[in-house]
Amino acid sequence: MRPGDLVRLVLENLGRRKARVALTAIGVVIGTAAVVVLVSLGIGLQRNATEQLGGISDLTLIYVYPTYGEAFYGGGGGGGGRGGGGAVVSAQSQPTEQNLLTPATLEELAALPGVQGVYPRDYLMAGAVMQYGRMENYPSILGVLPKELETLGLPVEGGALQMERNELVVGHYVTQNFYDPRLRPGQDPPAPPELLDESVKLVVSKYSPEGVETRKTVQFRVRGIVAETRGESDYTAYMRLDDLDALNQWVTGRRPNRTRDGYPTVIVKAGDSRDVLTIADAITGLGFQADTPMSFIQGINSFFVILQVVFGGVGAIALLVAAIGIANTMTMSILERTREIGLMKAVGATNGSVLAVFLGEAAGIGFVGGLGGVVLGWTAGQAINVIALAYLAGQAAETGSLPPSVAVYTPGWLLPFCLIFATVIGLASGLYPALRAATLVPVNALKYE
């Protein structure tokens, strides 16, 4: 039987039982639509979570920390008696390896494949208050390289991110969190100051062993303001590392020695986010601690892959029920068309031709149901997306968080996959009835009532 004749015969047979085919196909429609909607929902949730985390952190950054040696001590003592006494004290020290982030280490990190830049940073080793006129603020103080903020691509709200000596770059909320400590009850709080290109005082305090406080006041000019990132930079005042070293030297009484003490933190920037985990593993292999937002992304992706499999399995159960309906429909069709099958064989139809006809009808039901399910699932996904985004946008406005860009996302591969899957399910469901039809004895089939 030629392929064209086979297709025409299958379509004619399906057209003779439109109601039965439609009712059977509805089960496939529901199952396929469930797979499309549920898998699209899982993918949409994954993309939303990834975008939210990517929006508050640069996924190409790796935060590197030193590992400090540890020693373990143990001891014991024994007493005495009338005939004599004694005591034994033992100590055992087993230090672990210490790896500091020294200038030599920075060169080693910069030489790793895929690394675009290495940026050391340090913290102020004392309490500090920032003063502007009568207003005060308590930001985090961080020392960075002069061009680090610009190279890392932090968003600019005003000014520039490259610092000269005695200049600061402050985060968005540093400008908003000033308050007047001498404000009287009932008075309105002052408006946030315009700090750009203004001079501010940084009052640093240190304490002697006797608890005597000593203060040092340093003038800084605000060179730039970082736009809101919902991260570390929002509450941080950045200064040059050499300015911070001078303040820490006054606090500690000794000049910082990076070769001996190293840096407390180093940021490694990868050229491509796909290389981040490989670089982090290489840094860990060198004996340092490495932390990156990409590791959270990987964990999130693993969770949502499992969620997509679960969602797809729920939809597949509906398809399984539909497959049973197809098998039942095809079995009943064989009982009704037994004499027709015998006639086909009497005029020369082979077992393969009969098998192909009934498999084609079963696959046709699966295809029609799959096509309807794909259209219904995609339409339902778009409707859910519009409703969910409207609701989540309102929730984000109330909480001040970023609104999601997608709730249900249907990738391009999902629709043809579901259509092919539904067709294959129909084909597999019709396999037993088709084999039964193909193996009927023509004489017996012709005598069947």
- The low-confidence runs, each spanning 5 or more residues with pLDDT under 50, are 71-95
Order of helices and strands: HHEEEHEEEEHEEHEEEHHEHEHHHHHH
Distance between the termini: 28 Å
> How many strands, what sense, and barrel or not for the largest sheet?
12 strands, mixed
Shape: elongated
Helix share of residues? 40-55%
Q: Tell me the total number of β-strands.
A: 14
What's the alpha carbon Rg, rounded to whole Å? 37 Å
Which descriptors would you attach to this protein?
449 residues; alpha+beta; 14 helices
Question: How would you sum up this structure in a few lines?
Answer:
With 449 residues, the protein is of the alpha+beta class. Helix 2 packs parallel to helix 11, helix 2 (18-56) runs antiparallel to helix 12 and helix 9 (293-336) packs parallel to helix 13. The chain folds into 2 domains: 3-57 and 299-446, no CATH class; 61-69 and 97-291, no CATH class.
Structure description:
About 6% of the residues have low confidence. The protein contains 14 helices and 14 strands. Strands 1, 4, 5, 6, 7, 8, 9, 10, 11, 12, 13 and 14 form a twelve-stranded mixed β-sheet that branches. The chain is an alpha+beta fold and 449 residues long. The chain has two domains: 203 residues, no CATH class; 204 residues, no CATH class. Strand 10 and strand 11 form a beta hairpin.
Reconstruct the topology from this structure:
Layout: H1 3-16, H2 18-56, E1 61-65, E2 80-81, E3 84-85, H3 103-110, E4 115-123, E5 127-132, E6 135-137, E7 140-144, H4 148-151, E8 156-159, E9 167-170, H5 172-176, E10 199-207, E11 213-226, E12 236-240, H6 241-252, H7 258-261, E13 265-270, H8 276-285, E14 289-291, H9 293-336, H10 338-346, H11 351-399, H12 414-429, H13 431-438, H14 442-446
Parallel strand pairs: 7-12, 9-11
Antiparallel strand pairs: 1-13, 1-14, 2-3, 4-7, 4-13, 5-6, 5-10, 8-11, 9-12, 10-11
Helix pairs in contact: 1-11, 2-9, 2-11, 2-12, 9-11, 9-12, 9-13, 11-12, 11-13
